[in-house]
Amino acid sequence: xxxxxxxxxxxxxxxxxxxxxxxxxxxxxxxxxxxxxxxxxxxxxxxxxxxxxxxxxxxxxxxxxxxxxxxxxxxxxxxxxxxxxxxxxxxxxxxxxxxxxxxxxxxxxxxxxxxxxxxxxxxxxxxxxxxxxxxxxxxxxxxxxxxxxxxxxxxxxxxxxxxxxxxxxxxxxxxxxxxxxxxxxxxxxxxxxxxxxxxxxxxxxxxxxxxxxxxxxxxxxxxxxxxxxxxxxxxxxxxxxxxxxxxxxxxxxxxxxxxxxxxxxxxxxxxxxxxxxxxxxxxxxxxxxxxxxxxxxxxxxxxxxxxxxxx
Length: 311
What we know:
Layout: E1 2-6, H1 10-13, H2 15-28, E2 33-37, H3 43-51, E3 62-68, H4 70-79, E4 86-92, H5 98-103, H6 109-117, E5 122-131, E6 140-142, E7 145-149, H7 150-158, H8 162-169, H9 173-185, E8 191-197, E9 201-214, E10 236-242, H10 246-256, E11 267-272, E12 274-287, E13 290-310
Parallel strand pairs: 1-2, 1-3, 3-4
Antiparallel strand pairs: 5-6, 5-13, 7-9, 7-12, 8-9, 8-12, 9-10, 10-11, 12-13
Helix pairs in contact: 3-4, 7-9, 8-9
């Protein structure tokens, strides 16, 4: 049985139209399915929790399909009762779609649907857990990346942006990340603090612009901040950009589209299974582009090969 969790507001409102097209394809098939349209932020999480509960054990072929952007997928995974009885599918209808880009999933919704209806390959993927210093969001999962600092500030600026909605309508959604990213440079602040890798190695931070923790290679609509990330190895790839101001960030950001930013002196890459971050002032934090507020102490841990996903 297929269960579709659809965000009709994805891609600045085009999600509903895309779903109508997918529904036409589904009606031509012989599969059993049910569809649930999200009505508000957090609804996809509630639906995923309900659909993957104890009753899933009686339906070993249960496939829950997230139809939306990386934010919708994040909510579904965050609510999912992760077990061998549940398989996850994903149809990208967002503006960034970094999960699909990293895994080389079909980017066109119709092709993604056909692959889900006729699956040939499955992979067990890692996911991360972010813990913040506020109890009510103390365990937020992520499947693409989590960041603190500049990249999260860009996500906050993009969220609800009129420019993003306009560029989505003319099929230039990627450009919104670039334009708003450049705009955010003028307001960028650096911080000091420390990283602790796997509870052992402590690394001081000075003039740090952002710290991005990756399961997948890409974030932000195509920035390849973690070119060697492997979503099945139980390790995070950490991209840290430090000792720079706004102007120094520009070459690194441009090179990151090709994954060549690692050649810059201001960029450092680390790998670990668990990570703690402390900053001297609170910074914006995101998980898969979803804003988690301002925090100065966060910890992240990787769950190895827990999600069964159609690829």
